[in-house]
Amino acid sequence: MCECCGQHDHESLYLPEVATVVATKPMTGRDRFFEFTLDGHDLGHLPGQFAELSIPGVGEAPISISSSPTKKGSFEMVIRNIGRVTAELHKLTPGQQIGLRGPFGTHFAMEEYTGKDLLFLAAGLGLPPLRSAINYAIDKRSNYGKIIILCGCTDPSQRLFIDEIETWKKNPSVIIMETVDRGDAAWKGNTGVITTLIPKVKDRINPANTKAFIVGPPVMYKFALLELKAIGFANADIIMSLERHMKCGVGKCGHCQINGVYVCREGPVFTYESITGLLEAL
Ligand SMILES: Cc1cc2nc3c(=O)[nH]c(=O)nc-3n(C[C@H](O)[C@H](O)[C@H](O)COP(=O)(O)OP(=O)(O)OC[C@H]3O[C@@H](n4cnc5c(N)ncnc54)[C@H](O)[C@@H]3O)c2cc1C
Ligand code: FES
Q: Going by CA atoms, what residue is nearest to atom 32 of ligand 1?
């Protein structure tokens, strides 16, 4: 076991293992869905963790694990094409292999939230990591109270997991609302940033018994926090995932530091309470 994380042996911290693409499909013009397998074992992740994907000669990129650990045999990710590594990952086809290190980082402690209501705020690429926790909660439905999911993205062409959102909408034990910043001629749903959905579900939320999860672009956190605080959430009940530039992913290189906190190892999942003193965090 590694003395730093207690989770891996040293060899597996630095040496990638082989992951094979099972399936891949486009989700938007810049986001692709991937299903991967490892040779003979599950990834063994928890909701909210990430893995470092590598292509020899190109580089490595940290990517959140989007499937729930309750799904066995393979795991899923959504990758946005924004640069060198992600562009190469987008070229992968089923059967091709890449390197993988992980899973790394802290997780949404779903096992500790038994009996709680759950409120998910997923904006843009925040949905893939939150989907792992959402499907975990749905698969263990009797462990939780209300499940409220609020999803937002910039416009209808950027919606992720459209089919799965429709399935969640048909689930009577889940409350789900979507919004887009800007609609188009075909869009009949809510228009406005994700925080405009909070007043619509406010009466169904009991902050004293709810854990709220926020993942999305940096600009969203400040406004989401203001709304949640205004309806009475305690800082300890607000859980968020922070994204920083990462290299090693295991607390060695310092690339991800915020005022001495290593986001790769002490995060990416934090309670708001644990980062209120970190000026640069949000
Ligand atoms: C914990 C964690 C989880 C992540 N999960 C996902 C995920 O599920 N799906 C996904 O598509 N991406 C995710 N990312 C972001 C992803 O790691 C980066 O987009 C990727 O590393 C970019 O690599 P690249 O070589 O393609 O781009 P590069 O060629 O290195 O960079 C292209 C441009 O993007 C900027 N950039 C690179 N990385 C980041 C970053 N982390 N934050 C802001 N700007 C950046 C660079 O400065 C540059 O301007 C995650 C990042 C972290 C830290
Ligand atoms: S990414 Fe290297 S220390 Fe966090």
A: 83
Is the per-residue pLDDT at 238 higher than 80? Answer: yes
Q: Which of 12-16, 33-37, 121-125 has the lowest mean pLDDT?
A: 12-16
Q: Which atom of ligand 2 has the smallest separation from the CA of 62?
A: 1
Q: Is the peptide bond before 199 cis (omega within 30 degrees of 0)?
A: no
Host domain of residue 218: 110-241
* Cα 109 to averaged position of ligand 2 atoms, centre (Å): 22
Per-residue model confidence (pLDDT) at position 3: 53
**Cis previous bond, 94, omega within 30:** no
Determine, yes or no, domain membership for 196.
yes
Contact 53, 78 (CB under 8 A): no
* Residues 136 and 172 grouped into a single domain: yes
Cβ(125) to ligand 1 under 6 A?
yes
Are 123 and 217 in contact by the 8 Å Cβ rule? The answer is yes
Please indicate, yes or no, if residue 220 is contained in any of the structural domains. yes
Q: Which of 55-64, 234-243, 257-266 has the lowest mean pLDDT?
A: 257-266
Upper half-sphere CA count for residue 244 (Cβ side, 13 Å): 26
Where among 205, 223, 241 does a domain terminate?
241
Mean pLDDT for all residues in the chain? 94
- The model carries a pTM of 0.94
Distance (Å, rounded) from C-alpha 136 to C-alpha 167?
Answer: 15
199 in any annotated domain = yes
Predicted local distance difference test score (pLDDT) of residue 11 = 58
Read off the pLDDT of each residue in 164-188 and give the average, rounded to a whole number: 96
